[in-house]
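Quick one: structure for this chain?
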Amino acid sequence: MARSEHHPNGLIHYNPQLSYRGYTLFSGGERNAYLMDMTGQFVHQWHCEKGITNPRLLPNGNLIALAWPSENVAGQRGLNGQAAACFELDWDGNVVWEYADPWIHHDYERLPNGNTLLVKWVPLPKSLVRKIKGGYNNDEDDPAHMLGDVVLEVSPEGDIVKQWKSWEHLDPATEIICPLDHRMEWTHCNSISLTPKGDWLLSFRRVSTIIEVNSRTGKIKWKWGDGTTSHQHDVKYSSADTITIFDNGVHRRGIDLSRALEVNAKTRKIVWEYAQDPPFSFHTLMGGSVDRLPNNNVLICETAKGHFFEVTRSKNVVWEYINPFFVTNPRLGGRVNMVFQVHRYGVDHPALANRDLDPQRYANLNRLYAPAS
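Got it. Here's what it folds into:
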């Protein structure tokens, strides 16, 4: 969908018969996360001065999210997705848990045991940096300095109970940085999720590779980076046998185009995909999410345009929305309405049980930002 000053924001389309009914969660605007109904009306809002990115609802109704970058890291040229903390807010917006670290980034996963998986940047051993291929350095860079990804398992008390160092398991001879990417970091892990068996599924953007890790031994169970995806995001299991992927298509040979994919977890063959016609009209160089909904529809987020929509398996758009909240982002050169990910929660989801979801509580906000379709 092309950007236009005169194109409406908010709800664009809604087909009640074919959509999966529920409430959509996203973060946008100044330090807020929003929950809205199918008609695009806001029914709940969370605010945090730390900033809110990549929010999700926990079964108890609390919101878990990442904060905005810390000032120590935000100025680092070439890095994106930093977060000063991962935190949990109750329904009323009170902080009930927080883990602060200026070098965590992109994603997290709350485990069944109450611990939280986080991804963090740390400096790589200099002896390894020399072996890593690809990418480029600017004249002012230190070619011996490069960041690598570590997975932390953090207890509710803030203790690190497990640490997995990516460079101890990846091969610099095969995990080669895209030649159009900076050598400030090696792999750029942008998503972490659990498999049906409780192992870890990781997406590495700069080497266009997906891996599954045995959460007990730390060994890689399988690795996939054959060129099918390019700089992908949001890799997670959609069933016992399938994985959804937002394939950004950045630096792909030929035309840059994005796709929402579902692949067989064993064969890594594509079993379903969504692209647009013409293909280049659907594209985001960063972010993106793909959620398969309980009715088998798919909720897709096109980050750069703040555009999210629901499609059927036959690829008909049955619900569509554009984030109406714009903020100034000096790093990206102007005002943006980007949304990293969106998620839909069914009306019977435990997080919403006995909650007041009356849009009249946000009547003023709805008059401004949720016009009728």
